[in-house]
Write a structure and sequence with these properties.
alpha/beta; globular
Length: 107
């Protein structure tokens, strides 16, 4: 079995920190995403945007991580926003009832 991969690039745009994700958010890569968001939260910006345009897969661990990160950013007086959410992921968020727990911005 191939190891799942997730690449994350960080961009600062005004009062937002944009993390562009490419690959899979799953049990093998969720910790990597959490670590980077934790680093950004050392000096919390008003918004952290996760650009999910190039995300190809998200398992239950990935979904849970998104919810935990949303709560963590909220506690840091920041806001986690998901953007460019693919149809497959929107459907999973709807089915699991997690869509209401996350802020999704349509760009």
């Amino acid at each position: 079995m191939d190891r799942a991969e997730l690449s994350i690039t960080l961009h600062r745009l005004g009062d937002e920190v944009v993390l562009r994700l490419a690959g899979e958010i799953d049990m093998m890569t969720a910790a990597q995403l959490s670590t980077i968001v934790d680093e950004v939260l050392t000096e919390p910006p008003p918004r952290i945007v996760l650009d999910l345009a190039a995300v190809t897969f998200c398992d239950s661990q990935g979904l849970g991580t998104l919810v935990v990160l949303s709560r963590k950013t909220s506690h840091s007086q920041s806001l986690l926003v998901l953007t460019n959410v693919a149809e497959f992921l929107r459907r999973v968020l709807d089915i699991t009832g997690l869509r209401s727990a996350l802020m999704i911005r349509d760009d």
